[in-house]
Predict the 3D structure of the following.
Amino acid sequence: MQKSNQLIPVILCGGSGSRLWPLSRQSYPKQFLNLINKNKSLLQMTQERVFNLENTKPPIVICNEEHRFVVAEQMREIGVNPSAIILEKDGKNTAPAISLAALKALELEKNPTLLVLSSDHLIQDNHNFLRSINSAINLVKKGRLVTFGVSPTYPETAYGYIQSKNPLDIKTLNGEEISKFFEKPDLEQAKNFLRDKRYSWNSGIFLFSAKAIIGELQNLAPEIYYPCKSAIKNATRDLFFQRIDEKAMANCPSISIDVAIMEKTKLGSVVPLDAKWSDIGSWNSLWESQDKDNEGNLLQGNVLLKDVKNSIFRSEGRLVVGMGVQNLVAIETDDAILVMNRDKSQKIKNLVSLMKNKGIVEASTHKRGYRPWGNYLAIANGENWLVKLIEVNPGASLSLQKHKFRVEHWIVVKGTAKIRIGDKNRILKENQSTFIPLGALHQLSNPEKSTLKIIEVQSGSILSEEDIERFDDIYGRVSR
């Protein structure tokens, strides 16, 4: 029996969340959005959920390379300095991600307990969540691999299910041995599962010691363990990120921890979780999880309704008006509008795939792009011109760079800008502007304590990131 060890949260931060399009897209998926709390993203809420657990170390976060600076900034905003931020160029599902995290954790502690959390789930009863975790720690001390089951309240076909040998007891929170896992069932199966108290929704939350999960990976999934071991051993440090060896991971299969380990292990236990859990996997699940008005509507933003029931209306900017409809989803963003029946929300993933096949860039990419220094919003564009609103965080700087195919005009609309063009520096105040000639070395910085906003007008034959040659960058993005 192992002694009490440090607990390290492992936050899985991959995924595109395409079923919440157009808000959630590959360029900025749902875990980074303030979907539930106006001031906190789902990722930040996930981390804050474990603040009151004893002996807890800073988290290990696994994310896509594209989102590394978003993760770092959102952790900084809530005062968290992660133990590690592991970057995956190509996501390989949860089994490799957890393997990488467990191997990294063993570099940090002798045998820590790992609490594996998805970054995009909602848990509304944190007290009961912590009760279930603390109860499961006793099983972890006995070498068990624990997952958490949620008692189903309706025949959901979008969730996986766990069958335990005996019904789960939410009063005692005792764990039960796992009999079987089921992937997303059809409606008739889901109705049967609802009637049988041995079945629970698979929450995708896990608790085990690092050595226990590594031992089972070695025994049951060596094709995952050994590439991950090599990838961590040969990882390189990049600022505060850890880049795994991509060549070592090339042949690692993409597979879930459920399929790779939990369905095969004899050490699996399931503990009941009665914490108002939801995976926020669709607009309908978001609607079900939130408080609504007297007509059953979930509203956000600039919205006006009359004779509307059981619907979601959300505006990110423009006025959205609805009348005489029900069971509708209407989502407005700066570059796309979604209107659909709420009951069809699980099928939006197919719609996003269709858009991708047709080459529609809005399927994956927002007009607003996020960078380590701030963000930009593409306002208007033509064949050889582009207008952006650029927001630079206090004290931040864009890279020292130049372009071969475009010129730029900068107009300060709010704040103070420090501008370098060639070897000359100058300060621009509001309503002042400057011109960046073709091929000129230049840099934009914000020396103040408030956000800098500028309008950038680009003109040239290539307006993409491909026409940026970086010479110096505080975020390590120098061109090679």
Summary: The two ends are 51 Å apart (CA to CA). The chain has three domains: 7-278, 289-357, 368-472. The chain has eleven helices and 30 strands. Residues 289-357 form one domain.
